[in-house]
Amino acid sequence: MIHKLTSEERTTQLAQLHGWQAVTGRDAIFRHLKFADFNEAFGFMTRIAIKAQEMNHHPEWFNVYHTVEITLTTHDANGVTERDIALARFIDEVAKAMQRG
Amino acid sequence: MIHKLTSEERTTQLAQLHGWQAVTGRDAIFRHLKFADFNEAFGFMTRIAIKAQEMNHHPEWFNVYHTVEITLTTHDANGVTERDIALARFIDEVAKAMQRG
């Protein structure tokens, strides 16, 4: 079974991600993203959805027009695990690539 | 400019939709949907996204695994309009078709 990161491990991992923060009152991490428009935001979500399905690890996310808010946690471990860090890393890569243009 | 529905108009329209309710403290409508799994939920969202873009009228929505929560309102009119009812009607049709199988 996948183990929950310790507070120290989580802090170390968060420092290597882009724009992620710990959620207050919950063992989860959060990132707010802003795109050019809805087309770009939903295109981003589609790339993440395909990856999430491949990983069998899914985000909690909210979208309105060009913004996407993502919360990651591992329900089975009741906290943040390596799976969340791996998905967050992929999200950062896609966001960076899309926002580069 | 598109006009905001009166309270009476909104009530009449809501009664013809499926599972939608008025949001407390905000002129908006809300529906919670549950699908078989993430694949089905995100497939549903993709159909709605394409329609929303075509209508140039976008939802506020939240997804986690097999659930989707949708809030509709028209920011330009500061309340619920015919555009929201039209999008809600489309959402109902797609949801019904997908949940029929």
TrEMBL record, chains A, B:
Keywords (A to Z) from UniProt: Lyase
SUPFAM superfamilies named in the record: PCD-like
InterPro entries: PCD_sf (IPR036428), Pterin_deHydtase (IPR001533)
One GO process term, biological-process aspect: tetrahydrobiopterin biosynthetic process
Catalysed reactions, semicolon-separated: (4aS,6R)-4a-hydroxy-L-erythro-5,6,7,8-tetrahydrobiopterin = (6R)-L-erythro-6,7-dihydrobiopterin + H2O
MF terms (GO), sorted A to Z: 4-alpha-hydroxytetrahydrobiopterin dehydratase activity
A Pfam family of this chain: Pterin_4a
Presence of keyword Metal-binding: no
Keyword check for Lipid metabolism: no
Entry EC number(s): 4.2.1.96
Family the UniProt entry places it in: Belongs to the pterin-4-alpha-carbinolamine dehydratase family.
Protein name, entry field: Putative pterin-4-alpha-carbinolamine dehydratase
